[in-house]
Here is the input.
Amino acid sequence: MTDNVIEVRELRKAYGDFIAVDGISFDIRRGETFALLGPNGAGKSTTIEILEGFRHRSSGDVRVLGVDPQRGGLDWKARMGVVLQSTGEAGNFTVRELLTEFAGYYPRPRDIDEVIAAVGLDEKQRTRAARLSGGQRRRLDVALGIIGRPELLFLDEPTTGFDPEARRQFWDLIRSLKREGTSILLTTHYLDEAAQLGDRAAVIAGGSIAAIGRIDEIGGADARTPMVRWTDAAGRARAERTREPGAVVARIYREGGEPADLEVVRPTLEDIYLELIREAADRGSSTATMKEPA
Here is the structure.
C-alpha cells in the first residue's frame, strides 16, 4: 500500500486553445489534510473534478487510491466522500431520510445519529431539505459526504454559509476525521481555515502551482520575514523587513527615541498567499507581453 492517496504527474487539461491546468504535479499523503488554494479560475476546480473522476484530463498521469480516476468503478467511488460547492439533492426528503438512503450505498457507513449530531442538525433531522437555510443545507452536504466513512474526503468550500461558531464546530469534526485516519483534500477561500486544518498546501494560479509545502513553510523563509513599520521624526512612513525585529526596534529607539505608529507585522498565510498570487499574475503578464508581436 502506497503512502500516497493521490499522485499527480504533469497533469494538463486544455479546452481548445485555453489551458486550464498546465502540467502540475503533487502528492497527497495518507492521513494528511492537504489544502489546494487559488483564486477563482486558477484551475483548482478542474483539477479536483479530474481527481474525482468527473472530468477527463488531456494528458498526464493521475492515481487516486491507486486507481486512474478515468477507470474508477463503484468499489473505488465507495472509498471516497465528496462535498461539492453545490448539490442538487431531492428537497422533498428529510435530513434523516437522505442520510439513511446514502448510508445504504456504503459497506461500512457511519451511525446516522452520530453524523447528524456532528454537523449540528439534530433539531432539523425531520425537516425537508428544501426548507433548510443555506448554512443548514451546507451542513447536510457535509453529512452526506462523510456518511460512508471515506478513506479520502474531498471538501470543496465546505464552510460557505457557516457562522463563526458553526465553522469552529466543523473544524473539530474534520480534526476528528483526521485522527481516524481519513485523508482530506480541502479547497477553501478562508485562509485561516486552511491554516487551522491543513498539514500541507499548494497554491495554484493560472493553471500552474505557484508554491507547495507545509502550511508553516509555504512561500519560503523570505515570505515569512517580519516587517517593522513606524513614522520617523520627520513624519515619513518607514518600513524595514528583518529577521530580527527586536534589534531593529531597539536601534530605532536609540536613534530617535520612541517612534510613532510602531508596529511589527508577521506575515500570515493570507499575506503569503496574496503575494504568491500577485507574483504569478505578474509573471503571466510578462510572458504575454513577450509573446506579443513587435
